[in-house]
Amino acid sequence: MECDPSEPIVLADLGAATLGPDQGYGLLADAAIALKGGRIAWVGAATELPQDYAGWRIERLGGRLVTPAFVDCHTHLVFAGNRAREFEMPLEGASYEEVARAGGGIVSTVRATRAAGETALIAATLPRLDALLAEGVSVVEVKSGYGLDVETELRMLHVARQLQSLRPVRIRTTFLGAHATPVEYKGRNADYIAEVCIPALRAAHAEGLVDAVDGFCEGIAFSVAEMEPVFAEAKALGLPVKLHAEQLSNIGGIRLAARYGALSVDHVEYANDADAAALAASGTVPVLLPGAFYAIRETQAPPVASFRAHGVPMALATDCNPGTSPMTSLLLTMNMACTLFRLTVEEALRGVTVNAARALGLSDTGRIAAGMRADLAVWNAESPAELAYRFGFNPLHTRIFGGL
User: Fold this and answer.
1) If DSSP codes are grouped into helix, strand and coil, which group holds residue 376?
2) pLDDT averaged over every residue in the chain
3) Is the model's pLDDT at 363 over the cut of 90?
């Protein structure tokens, strides 16, 4: 169901998980939610519905659970081709060196994406986006990073921007030119940053294509020193930063991100207690990506206990990408986070709603409260636990997108 912003409506006969600023679901039984102008006008017990709303059209939801619509705050949704053969080859006995020699890895995705025009990229991306929307997602972050040249990075961001004109969704674009070093710059990371990445960022910003700037800070990607000029340029342009950090080792990426007041740091399996303290001080949100943890068979889980001890809110995302997390399900992400990382269901639900919104710098979505956007998910469920404990099952009844 899409909410008509011009028509006031009261959603009644529901259970609402409001996810307020305090602990707990904020679950309201026999609740009502009044919507007007694409916003939530009022929420509370149905018996306390103000008289001002009594004449509004009423939509009864049969006791179903209503949560904030989901937010997928880390995806690489726009790309061409796939890497299914790379999944298959090791199972048949090929070594990772043999996979690489066969043209596998990010190189294959860069090659396919560079060769694809905007029409082809849109056609490839929409089914992935539709899968997310079918699970109650209203906001999707989309990164560039599979072009690694100025032309293709801009093309990816153009495609990402177009998605919200093709589907009822809110798209946040992230420039990820510092994702990997292309083959033509092999062994020359600093030259690539100076000659391609930063010029591409400036061009994308000039065209209004960038909401945030990201990078991959890791031993197999870019060092802290190599990321510094990218972040400095982002700051000069007035753009917030994010960072893939501490996924495979700890080289100080989180401390770099915290120093720049980053919106988020993502993966963070190898973060430590000092990193958690730095995140608490900076307000930076760690985004846990259990799909990638699962796909690469990682064994070191993120330091969830440290994040809890320091009061650091955790977000969750699919990390949808063709290589290390070919996943388009936030419901499965919730289950994986609870099963693999031992998050509580409440932490998982906050991770795909209010905390995910915070990881994108959004304060108007992710909770059910007066003044928030009317982006809601209605579930064939009675309790939030039902959203996390099943996998391979979608209980969505309807998605309400009251966007602009």
Assistant:
1) strand
2) 95
3) yes
